[in-house]
């Protein structure tokens, strides 16, 4: 089976949520070096400790090196400086998102433009199931996600043979939902679970598997993988 043995992985957005899951899963898949990037030094430091504790609590040991780098994905100079500091990597994963186009589209675009990806490496971006099934009031998000989705296919052509793919999660239990009161959030998760074929809302670790696949499989590029618990069928 392919692993990430000896590989270096940069996860921009790795201080929480899906990116946190990808960083942890990369270490568990034997990556030699994993770097998480986000805009908050405090969140990075907390994430570094939590990832190590999570792995220790699971009873597994990893040999890879884990570190963090501050980057403001709204600022292309900051993104370029990050990629310069980190240098060559095998895999770039982009899960950062807060405001709309600046972080999710332009940040990812700039990183893909300047990243030094080693032969056999990959870039994996992130959209959301709104890209194929927008809800009422979600037009702007759908437009943004569509732009990142199309960007993925464009980059796969421009950067070939570097592989470029995009993951499209459905609902995932991450810090993204923290601004909501817990009772509202829990009700949304409970209601969503009832509508999903898999009957539960995903944990970040379940979504991380799709990113690992895109890093490891040498024959996938220009693709969107929907990891939505079967939402689109109901
Ligand atoms: N959770 C879901 O249900 C869900 C569903 C579908 C799609 N998605 C998409 O998946 C992506 C990741 O979501 P998530 O749930 O993992 O969110 P999250 O837990 O809120 O994580 C977002 C990450 O982005 C980073 N970030 C935010 N602003 C940044 C900036 N200016 N520069 C650099 N990093 C920045 C955050 O770190 P700092 O705050 O430290 O900067 C954090 O590490 C998002 O694009 C989201 O829209 C999520």
From TrEMBL:
A family per Pfam: SDR
Entry-linked SUPFAM superfamilies: NAD(P)-binding Rossmann-fold domains
Keywords associated with the record: NADP, Oxidoreductase
GO MF: oxidoreductase activity
Superkingdom of the organism of origin: Eukaryota
Record InterPro entries: NAD(P)-bd_dom_sf (IPR036291), SDR_DHRS6-like (IPR051122), SDR_fam (IPR002347), SDR_PhqE-like (IPR057571)
UniProt family annotation: Belongs to the short-chain dehydrogenases/reductases (SDR) family.
Official protein name in the record: NAD-binding protein
Organism, scientific name: Sanghuangporus baumii (Phellinus baumii)
């Amino acid at each position: 089976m392919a692993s990430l043995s000896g590989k270096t992985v940069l996860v921009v957005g790795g201080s929480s949520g899906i990116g946190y899951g990808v960083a942890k899963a990369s270490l568990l898949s034997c990556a030699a070096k994993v770097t998480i990037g986000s805009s908050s030094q405090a969140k990075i430091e907390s994430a570094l400790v939590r990832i190590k504790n999570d792995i220790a609590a699971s009873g597994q040991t990893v040999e890879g090196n884990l570190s963090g780098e501050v980057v403001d994905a709204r600022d292309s100079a900051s993104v370029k400086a990050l990629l310069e500091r980190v240098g060559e990597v095998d895999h770039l994963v982009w899960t950062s998102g807060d405001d709309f186009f600046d972080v999710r589209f332009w940040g990812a675009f700039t990183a893909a433009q300047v990243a030094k990806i080693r032969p056999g490496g990959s870039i994996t971006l992130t959209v959301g199931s709104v890209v194929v099934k927008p809800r009422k009031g979600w037009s702007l998000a759908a437009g943004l996600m569509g732009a990142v989705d199309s960007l993925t296919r464009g980059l796969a052509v421009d950067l070939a043979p570097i592989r470029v793919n995009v993951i499209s999660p459905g609902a995932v239990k991450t810090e993204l939902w923290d601004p909501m009161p817990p009772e509202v959030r829990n009700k949304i998760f409970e209601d969503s679970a009832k509508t999903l074929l898999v009957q539960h809302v995903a944990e970040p670790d379940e979504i991380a598997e799709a990113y690992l696949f895109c890093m490891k499989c040498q024959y996938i590029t220009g693709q969107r993988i929907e990891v939505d618990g079967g939402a689109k069928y109901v």
